[in-house]
Amino acid sequence: MAAPVLQQNDEVxxxxxxxxxxxxxxxxxxxxxxxSGKTSVLERTIEGLxxxxxxxxxxxxxxxxxxxxxxxxxGVPVVQINTAGACHLDARMVKxxxxxxxxxxxxxxxxxNVGNLVCPAEFxxxxxxxxxxxxxTEGNDKPVKYPLVFRESRAVLINKIDLLPxxxxxxxxxxxxxxQINPExxxxxxxxxxxxGFEPWLSWLENQVQEKQTQKR
Length: 217
Ligand SMILES: Nc1nc2c(ncn2[C@@H]2O[C@H](COP(=O)(O)OP(=O)(O)OP(=O)(O)O)[C@@H](O)[C@H]2O)c(=O)[nH]1
Ligand SMILES: [Mg+2]
Ligand SMILES: [Zn+2]
Fold this sequence. Notes:
The protein is an alpha/beta fold. The chain has 8 helices and 7 strands; from the N terminus they run αβαβαβαββααβαβα. Strands 3-2-4-1-5-6-7 form a 7-stranded parallel beta sheet, covered by helices on one side. Helix 7 links the parallel strand 6 and strand 7. The site of magnesium ion (MG) has 4 residues, from helix 2.
């Protein structure tokens, strides 16, 4: 990516970050390849955090509003960004959406990035942390082939573990590879289908939010 593009992006990301800090919102940038289960993880997360944290969602999609429609059903404030062809979100796209939320009423804003395991990781949106979803159906080699997204993430959800009996995936090896890329990674084995494994992820999110709120005080 050309340096001036990323530099301009970083400037807007810094502005977004300032707004998030002022309003005390923890922002998570959720990334993965298409279909790994970002929206499904979001749906489970919204359910699980109901009554625990106040959520907001930004949905990044190339053309459709389908994911935003799925999230709306849960009664959570959601804003759609259509990237009109672009295969990632950037800070400039996120900035105007912040006007559409009452950020003081939100503890945790989750941004679902465009399904793409490559360039979303290059664009800072002003988030506090990034997390990646990697489903067990994608093949064991994905961390090694696409390391940047995992190096840049604080947590990885290894999703679709309900399918493990039917496929050839060595999750222990997958976790080893992920840790080799980023030893600090928090790893969560989950199934957005059954809800298995979600509680540690939800507690982790609560802790992240709490830490930021303590910083603000
Ligand atoms: N079996 C199983 N299927 C899942 C699980 N999580 C998601 N799926 C299915 O995987 C497909 C894709 O899920 P989405 O949540 O739409 O994936 P996404 O990452 O948001 O997709 P994009 O936004 O298009 O990149 C859907 O058919 C889901 O029902 C899971 O844990 N187990
Ligand atoms: Mg989605
Ligand atoms: Zn892109």
